[in-house]
Amino acid sequence: MGRPPCCDKSNVKRGLWTAEEDAKILAYVSDHGPGNWTSVPKKAGLRRCGKSCRLRYTNYLRPNLKHDNFTPQEEELIINLHAAIGSRWSLIAQQLPGRTDNDVKNHWNTKLKKRLCGMGIDPVTHKPISQILHDYENIGGIPKPGTRIGTLNRDLKNAFMVKHEPHDGISGITNPSMIPIQSLSMEPLFSSHFNINSNNHSLELLAQFQAIKLVTDQASHCANLERFQPHLFSSEGSSSSSSCSSNVLQLNSQPVINPNCQTSSVPNTPCSPFSWSEFLLEDAFLPPNQQEQQDVQGLSYIESSSQLAQTEFNNIGNVTLEGVRDMGYSTYDYTNRGYPITSIGETNDAFGASSSSGSSFVEALLDRDSEMSWDFPSLLEEPYY
DNA sequence: AACTCCATCAACCGCGTGCAA
DNA sequence: CTTGCACGCGGTTGATGGAGT
């Protein structure tokens, strides 16, 4: 039993709007203001669904909307915001005056995503695809064709299936440091690893790997948190003094030692005996509510990508970051920049890759009783990839 | 000229959420 | 507490026009 239709589909007009219809909407809004859209068609004399009226107004007729091309500055902002918070188009659009979420989404899907792909950057993770391939090569065992690996959506596949277009860089990116990768001069995209023209399976494999990588970014160390970091669940576990990158993963059965590991109890030990193969043959996508938050001894432990952390912060309210544990070899310390965050770790090296670029994992121990708030957008003033 | 392919973007769809009754 | 409504959001579809053959 599905949801009942919002209106009588057989009695409403669909498709493109005429100037006459636009005029009716504008006249109605001018008299009554926006809102109560279900009654707008009747009151405005339109044979349209109320939902359609709202969309037409918010995406096209609303005052102060820009209808010209995106500027390089806007594109740069979209790319960086997407890297930070993902496809939260409405949030991204809020940072771009005069742009709607639909505008931003379309521009991303038609232009920016392809541009990044052409540069050898994965538009999902914003990491160099060569790095992903390198990671993949380090996985012991290639899955057979057709092996089910997680949930792979069309967009994820298309991001990789897009044809390779030569680009020197993102047009309009005025500050190269804002580009969330190490280098823009990539080796020929797939050539050294896959034969695009003759081996569709390789592409499928590549896309599947991307899915795995994405899954792992989002869920792996969360899913293994209690298993590998029992100290976090002890009464001492809430201390902000721990900066150990405890979730360094193990590849090819070789433990990875994190030189920054400062856990007093277990110094310089392999922090988490993880095996990639655990993710290869099962659906590792976890429901978000199982990934993001666990209550630990009166503290709220949040471990997620930065946008999920932001969401949690917003949901919880004003909080203080008691500590943010470093997740990789490099750490950016925001302490002296006025941010209530001791450090933001990079997780890339958790996968044993050689690159120092990483995803935007934020791990935080939050004290709900504190009053200090975290201004997430300010973190975006400088990249922390 | 006719046809196909493809990029673009407006519009649609279904789901989630908030809120009032 | 439940229900229904309104709205916002993100994913997807489809109409359109331009480029290529």
TrEMBL record:
Keywords: Developmental protein, DNA-binding, Nucleus, Repeat, Transcription, Transcription regulation. GO terms for biological process: anther wall tapetum development. One of its GO terms (cellular component) is nucleus. InterPro entries: Homeodomain-like_sf, Myb_dom, Myb_TF_plants, SANT/Myb. GO terms for molecular function: DNA binding. The keyword Iron does not apply. Gene3D superfamilies: Homeodomain-like. PANTHER family: F14D16.11-RELATED. This is Uncharacterized protein.
